[in-house]
Design goal:
heterotetramer, A mainly alpha, B alpha/beta, C mainly alpha, D alpha/beta, A: mainly alpha, MetI-like fold, 69% helix, 0% strand, B: alpha/beta, Rossmann fold, 2 domains, eight-stranded mixed β-sheet, four-stranded antiparallel β-sheet, 10 helices, 12 strands, 29% helix, globular
């Protein structure tokens, strides 16, 4: 039988000293690495400031806007051009301020995109991890569900569901979108999980007596965290397009609720698209800038995750 | 050395890789000759530069990230300064190469026959019937039992040993004067390894080619090679005939390496193996000057090492880098501080 | 090989059944019923009630579902309320338009994507690669419909280079029909291709880069194969094969995108028909379209798997 | 005393095909093997790639689902997961892996890696745990400043020693070492093997040493089993296997090991070619119709070989005559 080692041969002071020494030798944390990477890349820092600042602004500003008053028709201001009559960005055919609609609409669109990203990514990640880790019949069953979901024409299904449900709001809309937007993430995570599961550190954890759930979420997930962050950032950029696209078609948020999509839908009128460009172009430009900035952040994150591509000094 | 039989002569060959904008030497100042009918083994542990030397001779490095100097004279021409087009006439035709991992070294999407006859396409004017006949002949020569069937298969349908035979068939397709085999048996089982080495020996006997055999396995060298060059940290530290190097190793590295091999007569529970102190520094941390092995033999006085080690002839054809071998002796294991 | 395909097709059957049940139930949940369109507006409530009764509208759902499926198998997709026409005829016309646009987009996509991906991979890290990567990055980020709207605005309205609505000019005849068709699909096709190339270019590029550093390319070099032939016989060939399998998946993307493309360009295809039908609650058309798109998606995946099985000997299906 | 008793162990992998993904055939990775591991010994399991030796090791440690047969530890059959859980099996049976990089979670610090089995099987205070990890690091010859480093900051040999430290953390009785040194350089291999022996002497651990390298196995193991296509072909002590091999497979394997003895290389090559010839010509006498090994027959108290009886009599007869 093995002899238990004597634990008294290291004094507390000695332990303290060894710990401090070890700490000094320790590698920087991943948050630190990420921050260094942003500091080393100026456009990335600017993107980060734009995105964070903008999101904060559109989340806070609408509190001071009376949206009911904003959405009431004002014939007198019919299609006022920008910079006239206190309309910073002009007014639409109903005489409503584009600038104010843009702020409230951004909040709605970004809010839904954030909600959608949170729900669909969480679901997709969990799905991919579980399917990839357990394999066998569990994976087989989950893959059939995945296949079935992939077969559904997403846009059509969402439109049909929106038509059926009468009293939907932004929250139920977010959930409807989420049903159809987790598959990409789940596939990506599953394939990486499959690869990770084959590695010996998972076997080592099993033989060390660690349970399956702990292995999935504490051992495997940290190893694909960079993939998760990158995928989530890119999904966020993509998801802005989901709600706005459907609102553009008229099947997103209810008509009286402003959204970036409904603003761009002003372009559906051949007169608006050329003559009254201010009714839709600002919203389009906003989406473009926002999506570019978010994806750029995603690129920086993925670079930080890959040691060989980092730009920050080592 | 017989001038007439000399196939390849390396003089002061160095290769440096660019890492983070700076060049670090992977191979430095290598002098070697290979003759006809000779198997020269280059032996060393991982990272000692033996594979880099092979790819340097073949010109397989990206010139943008490598710096190569010195001379590698083959058939009167310096390979290291040749243009890519001229090199292509030599590669595959005059020099064949065998790689370590037989699966990844074959194109997964092409049939075996196409991969072998590709060499013939570029170096012979054979008709397609002639090429087919030659492919079958080659597969026979490397010991493949059903050449017609194998020729038609894809790499993934073959076993590791079969794939390595195919690689050898590619390397010898044009009866090259020189074959460079880079760890040809490392990925294989011992019984397959023995067969592959037999194939290599047979081919050499038939074609009178010179072979450069690169390996980390001292046993393979002792069984196969005529001449040995031992590499450490990009330099050749000892060279001579196989009998000289294995029978009377001189350099402390060679001696330590041989000593650290498991011996059959040791006690299972109590006898420990000899361990070389320290470890090979990474390429970035390698000292640029002085005796690179010196830090790993702490019981020899620093003064025993040469400042800038040079080759010393200890017997005809047996050379050792640095004079420190004179001071080296094995102490009892217990005295060796790890 | 045929056995594997047959097996794949058989696995699809339960999926299609499930899809049809789902679509049927969704249709049931929609406002209105299949007679809203076909009955005489002057019929009394009692008469409608009677019609519903004899047509089984009060049967349990599975009974109704069965009847519907039986009709489907006879090619009867029902009557359109809005157009007073058999749905099959209606979709037939629109499908031709969508097919024209999709096929054109796909051809353009591959014509653009393959050279770009190969070129970027070959010249990894150099200026053209950077330019191509910026292009893919930008188009990847911007939502498809925004690209379409802006494209329509700039090239359709501001420069007036392309028609902004319709599929064929009504005045065209003879060969003019074809050229008018091309004129109408040029802009949406180009914009769709611009958007669709992104994934293929990126995939292609990384395939080429992987192949470039692979051992078998090193083997080819040591055989004395010249650089341009290494690209031709090894790198391009090996990177192109997996791309072939993308073709099937592109169908899914194109169908989903057609809803936006056709709405924005007022192009009378299936996507626009769908939006119109939703707006008019023309639900026989809607169910038919959803079912059809679902099956097409499935066929796309099947096609991809088959292509991949044929071109890659490692997973060759036999 | 036998620590582990393996009886008629089979691990078959299903091959699925057909319409409904039904099992149409099986791969017999391990096909009915039996052997015992005594407390305190190193038992060598030797075979070429695909022989099933790794699968055997994995089923002993509980990583592989066993098709049939039994693995008894302390008299308890541990082939079921519930049985392993009940007796905290993995506290006593641990594993060292071949690929040191892949066996250490790259996102975890060394302290968390080594402490993982401790956290699952022994509830220690944070301070005691740290002390234990420091002691373990010392046992395998690593500095205390390794505590908060990540695996990639170490060399291959050092990582393999970290793997050993983790395996011995709970003071196990048996460690499955699956090709522990085959990815290492010669000089580093010596170091790792020495540490394994040192730990064995200090803690009285048994090893199941799985390897294809007969030189290393001879250095490490008292008892050895040779595996071929999922079955055992020869079992015996170190002397039995290396001095008196009977099965052609064992002979062939032994003859194929390259040795550093340059002077006698021609003779060895001749001998190898002779054995190869026998192998080619007589393999049907050594294997059954399916090309698999026969059941084991006892030759001596320690020596077993998989041969039909007539062949065995013939071989032992020859041997006696030679002597």
């Amino acid at each position: 039988m093995a002899v238990k080692t004597n634990q008294a041969d290291i004094s507390p002071e000695e332990l303290q000293r060894l710990t401090t020494e070890a700490n000094q030798e320790a590698a920087p944390s991943s948050t630190r690495i990420l921050w260094n990477e942003f500091k080393a890349d100026r456009p990335a820092l600017i993107s980060l400031i734009i995105v964070v600042g903008f999101i904060l602004f559109v989340m806070i500003a609408p509190i001071f806007i009376n949206s009911e008053k904003m959405m009431t028709t004002n014939i007198m201001a019919y299609l006022t051009p920008p910079m006239e009559d206190h309309f910073l960005l002009g007014a639409d055919a109903n005489g409503r301020s584009i600038a104010l609609q843009l702020i409230v609409g951004s909040r709605n669109s970004i809010g839904i995109a954030i909600g959608l990203t949170l729900i669909s990514s969480t679901f997709g990640i969990a799905w991919g991890l579980i399917s990839g880790y357990f394999g066998g019949y569990i994976d087989w069953g989950m893959q059939r569900v995945y296949d079935f979901m992939m077969m559904l024409p997403m846009t059509m299904m969402i439109i049909v569901l929106v038509t059926i449900i009468h009293d939907y709001n932004s929250i139920s809309l977010t959930f409807i979108f989420s049903i159809f937007y987790w598959m990409g993430t789940s596939r990506l995570i599953r394939s990486r999980t499959l690869a990770e599961t084959k590695k010996d550190y998972v076997a080592a954890s099993i033989t060390s007596g660690t349970g399956s759930w702990k292995i999935i979420f504490k051992e495997i997930m940290p190893n694909i965290s960079s993939l998760i962050i990158v995928d989530t950032t890119l999904s966020f950029a993509e998801n802005i397009g989901v709600e706005t696209g459907l609102s553009y078609l008229g099947f997103g948020l209810p008509p009286q609720t402003p959204s970036l999509g409904t603003l761009i839908a002003n372009a559906n009128d051949p007169n608006n698209i050329t003559q009254y460009w201010w009714t839709w172009l600002p919203a389009a430009i906003e989406i473009i800038i926002l999506c570019l900035a978010i994806s750029y952040i995603g690129q920086v994150v993925s670079r930080a995750a890959n040691a060989s591509q980092r730009r920050a000094e080592k | 050395m017989n001038e007439e039989n000399e196939l390849l002569k390396l003089t002061d060959v160095s290769t440096a890789f660019k890492i983070d904008g700076q060049y670090y030497p992977a191979v430095s100042h290598v002098d070697l000759e290979v003759e006809k009918d000779e198997i020269l083994a280059i032996v060393g542990e991982s990272g000692c530069g033996k594979s880099t030397l092979a790819t340097t001779i073949m010109g397989l490095h990206d010139p943008q990230t490598t710096q190569i100097s010195g001379q590698a004279v083959f058939a009167g021409q310096n390979l290291l300064e040749m243009k890519e087009e001229d090199l292509n006439d030599i590669r595959g035709a005059k020099i064949g190469m065998i790689f370590q991992d037989p699966l990844s070294a074959l194109n997964p999407l092409k049939r075996i026959e196409d991969q072998i006859s590709e060499v013939l396409d570029y170096h012979t004017g054979m008709s397609s019937e002639e090429k087919h006949a030659r492919v079958i002949e080659l597969l026979n020569q490397v010991g493949i039992l059903e050449p017609q069937r194998t020729a038609h298969q894809f790499p993934h349908e073959l076993s590791g040993g079969m794939r390595q035979r195919v690689i050898i068939a590619i390397a010898i397709a044009c009866k090259p004067d020189l074959i460079i085999a880079d760890e040809p048996t490392t990925a294989l089982d011992v019984t397959i390894q023995a067969q592959i080495l037999d194939v290599l020996r047979d081919i050499q006997a038939e074609n009178h080619a010179g072979i450069i055999l690169i390996t980390h396995d001292l046993g393979v060298v002792a069984e196969t090679a005529d001449e040995v060059a031992v590499m450490y940290a990009g330099e050749i530290v000892e060279r001579g005939t196989t009998a000289q190097v294995f029978g009377d190793p001189k350099h402390p590295y060679t001696r330590s390496l041989l000593r650290s091999m498991p011996q059959g007569d040791m006690d299972v529970l109590h006898d420990d193996l000899y361990v070389i102190a320290g470890s090979v520094p990474s390429i970035e941390k390698m000292p640029q000057t002085g005796d690179k092995f010196a830090p790993r033999i702490p019981w020899i006085k620093a003064s025993a090492h040469e400042e800038e080690p040079t080759m010393h002839e200890v017997a005809p054809g047996h050379q050792v880098r640095c004079t420190c071998y004179q001071d080296f002796y094995f102490q009892r294991l217990e005295d060796v501080d790890q | 090989m045929w056995k594997t395909i047959l097996r794949r097709v058989l696995i699809m059957i339960p999926e299609i059944i499930l899809l049809s049940i789902l679509v049927f139930l969704l249709a049931k949940a929609m406002p209105g019923d299949p007679f809203t369109g076909s009955i005489n507006p002057r019929s009394s409530a009692a008469q409608i009630e009677h019609l519903k009764q004899i047509n089984g509208l009060y049967d349990p759902w599975y009974q109704q579902y069965w009847n519907w499926v039986v009709h489907l198998f006879h090619g009867d997709l029902g009557q359109s309320y809005q157009y007073h026409e058999a749905v099959s005829n209606l979709i037939g016309d629109r499908a031709v338009n969508t097919l024209w646009l999709s096929a054109f987009t796909m051809v353009l996509t591959y014509m653009l994507a393959l050279p770009l991906g190969l070129y970027a991979g070959k010249h990894e890290g150099r200026l053209p690669d950077t330019v191509i990567r910026i292009y893919t990055y930008v188009t990847y980020c911007i939502p498809f419909f925004v690209i379409l709207v802006i494209g329509l605005w700039i090239f359709g309205y501001v420069f007036n280079w392309f028609p902004t609505t319709g599929s064929v000019s009504p005045t065209a005849h003879g060969m003019g029909v074809l050229s008018s068709r091309l004129e109408h699909i040029l802009l949406p096709g180009l914009l769709g291709a611009l958007f669709g190339t992104v994934n293929i270019v990126q995939y292609m590029r990384s395939e080429v880069i992987d192949a470039k550093h692979s051992d078998y390319v090193r083997t080819a070099r040591s055989k004395g194969v010249p650089n341009k032939d290494i690209y031709k016989h090894h790198i391009f060939r090996n990177s192109l094969l997996p791309i072939a399998a993308f073709g099937g998946y592109s169908i899914t993307g194109l169908l989903n995108g057609s809803i936006f493309t056709e709405t924005i360009f007022s192009y009378p295809g299936m996507g626009m028909l769908f939006i119109d039908s939703i707006n008019y609650r023309d639900y026989t058309v809607i169910t038919a379209l959803v079912l059809m798109f679902g099956i097409l998606n499935l066929l796309g995946t099947l096609l991809s798997d088959i292509i991949l099985g044929i071109v890659d000997p490692r997973i060759r299906i036999d | 005393m036998n620590l582990i008793e393996i009886r008629d162990l089979k691990v078959h992998y299903p091959i699925r095909s057909g319409f409904l993904n039904r099992v149409t055939d099986v791969v017999r990775a391990v096909d009915g093997i039996s052997f015992d591991i005594k407390a305190g010994e190193t038992y060598g399991l030797v075979g070429e790639s695909g022989s099933g030796k790794s699968t055997t090791g994995k089923s002993v440690v509980g990583l592989e689902e066993v098709t049939s047969g039994s693995i008894k530890y302390d008299g308890v059959d541990i082939t079921k997961k519930s049985a392993r859980k009940k007796i905290k099996y993995n506290e006593n049976v641990q594993m060292i892996f071949q690929d040191s990089l892949s066996s250490l979670n790259p996102r975890k610090r060394i302290i968390d890696i080594i402490a993982e089995p401790l956290r699952n099987f022994e509830k220690l205070s944070a301070e005691d745990e740290k002390i234990r990890v420091l002691q373990l690091l010392e046992t395998v010859g690593l500095n205390p400043d390794s505590l908060y480093k990540y695996p990639h900051q170490f060399s291959g040999g050092q990582r393999q020693r970290i793997g050993i430290a983790r395996a011995v953390a709970t003071n196990p009785q048996l460690i499955i070492a699956d090709e522990p040194v085959s990815a290492l350089d010669l000089s580093v291999q010596a170091q790792v093997l020495n540490f394994m022996k040192k730990i064995q002497r200090e803690f009285g651990i048994s090893y199941l040493f799985i390897s294809h390298d007969l030189g290393v196995v001879r250095h490490m193991c008292q008892n050895i089993a040779i595996m071929n296509k999922g079955r055992l072909v020869e079992v015996g002590t170190r002397e039995d296997i290396y001095e008196h091999p009977l099965h052609i497979y064992t002979k062939r394997l032994l003859a194929a090991i390259p040795e550093v003895d340059v002077a006698h290389r021609e003779e060895r090559m001749q001998k190898r070619l002779e054995i190869e010839q026998v192998y080619q010509q007589e393999s049907d006498q050594y294997y059954d119709e399916e090309g698999l090994a026969y059941p084991l027959l006892q030759v001596s108290p320690t020596h077993f070989v998989a041969l039909p009886e007539d062949k065995l009599t013939q071989l032992t007869g020859e041997k006696r005559r030679d002597a």
